[in-house]
Amino acid sequence: MDIIDEDLITTDPVPFLSQNGVNVQVLRLDTIHPVISGNKWFKLKFHLQQAIEGKYKAVITYGGAFSNHIAATAAACAANDIPCIGIIRGEEPGSYSHTLINARKYGMQLHFISRTGYQHKTLPPAFEGYDYYIIPEGGYSETGASGAATIPYNKSAFDHILCAVGTGTMMAGLINSKAAHASVLGLSALKNHSLLESEVRALLANKDQPVLINHAYHFGGYAKQKPSLIQFMNELFSATGIPTDFVYTGKLFYGVYDLVQQNHFPAGSRLLVVHSGGLQGNLSLRKGTLIF
Ligand SMILES: *Cc1c(COP(=O)(O)O)cnc(C)c1O
């Protein structure tokens, strides 16, 4: 299980984002591993532990062709010698995405199922009746949120914790583990996903906690991008040396920059931006798009 050294995680000041009297620091979860990067390690770790302790024959999980969760699960299972199977949404593509190539390289068996079969999460007949440990789609689960609650940072040093939101599992874990004085603000990577708040709340230990999600920085929707986003990601990298991915963290940092500019946070606020990794996803961009 000890494939990630959580002691390598640093918290770095970001002067480029620290304006209008607000202090912004970034939690570098992206640096811990090139593929099991960022929040995916935290969401997976207790699932892996249960799969190992329960002596399951293999791990099965679900995702799309560009899912960081699929790539991370493949790499984490390989590191623990656990056979794993990825059920991928949609027809088998003529040429595989980098995510799928990576997953296959790590030994994940890939099975493509139709969008309807996928919606019902039916297993291909070959797998029925086996003793598999199933990790829900995208890692959305209480177990995943418990893992995300172990994301390490100095709880007393920040007033606002900011994170990207996909399934909301990481955000739920961050709310469950935050200090009482602090608040967590999620920035959605999805367009108009109005169920997100209730999906996060379903994973909260205390259901009365507010779930604050900003839906303004999706740039057209999940895995969509615009030139203004790419330009910002390049500017951020030039100014800070911090690489971001175009699906989640580029939008997160853009949103933080913009909210700070608009005086959304009172002067004196101490912000922690969670860099949740996902950089392998940038391989699907045309070469030369990003300067890093
Ligand atoms: C998967 C992912 C997220 C979203 O995490 P959820 O727990 O599904 O909300 C955010 N950032 C990155 C880089 C990711 O890969």
TrEMBL record:
Cofactor dependency: pyridoxal 5'-phosphate
Give the keywords, sorted.
Answer: Pyridoxal phosphate
Give the InterPro entries listed for this entry.
Answer: ACCD_DCysDesulf, TrpB-like_PALP, TrpB-like_PALP_sf
Segments forming domain Tryptophan synthase beta chain-like PALP: 16-277
Give start-end of the signal peptide.
Answer: none
What's a Pfam family this protein contains? PALP
UniProt xrefs under Gene3D superfamilies:
3.40.50.1100
Record SUPFAM superfamilies:
Tryptophan synthase beta subunit-like PLP-dependent enzymes (SSF53686)
Query: What does the similarity note say?
Result: Belongs to the ACC deaminase/D-cysteine desulfhydrase family.
The protein's name in its UniProt record: Pyridoxal-phosphate dependent enzyme
* Species this protein is from: Niabella yanshanensis
